[in-house]
Write a structure and sequence with these properties.
Shape: globular
Largest sheet: 8 strands, mixed
Strand order of the largest sheet: 1-2-4-3-5-6-7-8
Distance between the termini: 53 Å
CATH topology: Rossmann fold
Radius of gyration: 20 Å
């Protein structure tokens, strides 16, 4: 990949209304232009997990936005489980596009963020130029997801001091002395017990992803990335998704942390995909008619 060039970065915010109140969401915008890309983080992870990819895409000409969904990062964190669901997260992405004046975007995400990207394609297909789905949580991940996330819910509900203690400990580690991806992991530990319990409750008991019949109807081009030896995000789920989506390509990562610690290969795959999604359609060739 060519050397990354400097791009503009700015933080913004917008508000979403619901029957339960008004919530503030925060995002970071990279670059400029009409080739929009929205990147979404995984469960309880802040948007800065995608800083590197966002800068790479923006330096190639894309206009990239990373979003803290409700309950993530610097966005509001209500403690009502009813405000959290994959569908409501997808609605927040559509509201972001409306706020930015973006007719369409390539929507991408990791883990939960990948599921949300799929949900955007289900509820607002005309707004999706393409999909980047890294390690989705689908049918083969059910048991592992229960084992991983049920303890989070129970701990936040019945041992809130443990969550608060981890939060205080993580804040004592200066982010400037650790690798960027370790800093993102530490930021993910900065949780408050009541919002965390509400968040996991809402996501855990709601619709996790569009059902198969809806996936089969998604016509947007898709890049699906799967990880080997990942029990919560089995590569089998990613491969199956790539087979179900009518216009998808599957890429196998070399390890769970490849895109975090050695991102060059997958950044290149994502950049090529985004540029292809936004390449102007070629005009149909005119056939010259010959006389009889």
């Amino acid at each position: 990949m060519s050397e990354r060039v400097l791009v503009s970065e700015k933080v913004g915010q917008f508000f979403v209304e619901s029957d339960r109140g008004r919530d503030r969401l925060e995002y970071t915008e990279y670059g400029a232009g009409e080739a929009w890309v929205v990147l979404l983080p995984g469960l309880l992870i802040p948007r800065r997990m995608h800083d590197g990819l966002a800068r790479t895409l923006a330096s190639s000409g894309a206009h990239v936005v990373t979003l803290d969904l409700l309950g993530h990062g610097r966005s509001d964190k209500p403690d009502d489980p009813l405000v959290y669901s994959v569908t409501s997260f997808a609605e927040q992405v559509v509201a972001l596009l409306d706020h930015l004046g973006a007719t369409q975007a390539v929507v991408g995400g990791t883990s939960l963020g990948g599921n949300v990207a799929l949900e955007v394609a289900a509820i607002a297909p005309s707004r999706v130029r393409g999909l980047i789905v890294e390690m989705p949580v689908l049918d083969n991940a059910l048991e592992a997801a229960i084992v991983a996330f049920a303890p989070l819910l129970l701990t936040a509900r019945f041992l809130p001091f443990a969550v608060s203690g981890v939060r205080l400990a993580s804040r004592r580690i200066p982010r400037r002395v650790v690798a960027a991806w370790i800093g993102v992991a530490l930021d993910s530990l900065d949780q408050q017990p009541r919002p965390m319990a509400a968040y996991v409750h809402g996501v855990f008991f709601g619709r996790a992803a569009p059902p198969v019949k809806e996936r089969l109807r998604m016509k947007a081009p898709a890049l699906v990335v799967g990880h080997p030896r990942d029990p919560i995000h089995p590569a089998a789920d990613a491969e199956l998704l790539a087979e179900q989506l009518p216009n998808a390509r599957f890429v196998r990562a070399r390890g769970i942390l490849e895109w975090r610690t050695r991102p060059e290969r997958l950044d290149l795959e994502a950049t090529r995909f985004v540029l292809e999604c936004w390449r102007p359609a070629r005009p149909a060739r005119r056939v010259r008619r010959t006389g009889a």
